[in-house]
Design a protein that fits this description.
With 148 residues, this protein is an alpha+beta fold. The protein has one domain: Glutaredoxin (3-Layer(aba) Sandwich). It is built from 7 helices and 4 strands; from the N terminus they run αβαβαββαααα. It has a 4-stranded mixed β-sheet, covered by helices on one side. Helix 4 packs antiparallel against helix 5. The longest helix is centred in the C-terminal third of the chain and has 19 residues. It is globular and about 35 Å long. The model has no long low-confidence stretch (mean pLDDT 80).
């Protein structure tokens, strides 16, 4: 069974995040609450299901580590596209209703190296500021269908 079939992604984004990071967990839940159109599915990077997807896209430790969020658009399709760091966050913002797509477009005007520098600074200090969890929290019953 493919990742696509297993996760029933359709045209949804697959959001891979650090399940042990306090900031990452809060961010995933923030996006989840605002994703009224059901455009995202979330999976912790620690999940064994993620390994094949990352390997297929040559996403080793040099491109992806616990300090980066990964968004996969069109998983397991010829048009599969992997976005990391600030590009991943912008893709997620663009899927939300309301003013968030506009915010994503405006932030997209900032050159990627500058956006990613800001992303890396936050990522470097996130455990100190937001803490590190012993394990990935279990989603509520309502959230469970949105987490893989």
């Amino acid at each position: 069974m493919s990742v696509h079939e297993l996760f029933h992604l359709g045209r949804r984004l697959l959001v891979i995040f650090d399940g042990r990071c306090g900031l990452c967990n809060r961010s995933a839940r923030w996006f989840l609450r605002r994703d009224a159109r059901d455009r995202m599915r979330f999976v912790a990077s620690e999940s064994p299901l993620v390994a094949a997807l990352l390997a297929r896209n040559e996403m080793g430790a040099d491109r992806f580590g616990p300090s980066s969020i990964v968004v996969v658009r069109n998983a397991e399709r010829p048009s599969e596209r992997v976005l990391v760091r600030s590009d991943a966050v912008l893709a997620m913002l663009r899927e939300l209703p309301g003013v968030w797509p506009v915010a994503g477009r405006v932030l997209g005007w900032i050159p990627r190296p500058v956006r990613d520098l800001g992303y890396r600074v936050v990522a470097r200090f996130r455990y100190r500021i937001f803490g590190r969890l012993e394990s990935c929290p279990i989603p509520t019953a309502e959230e469970r269908v949105r987490f893989l």
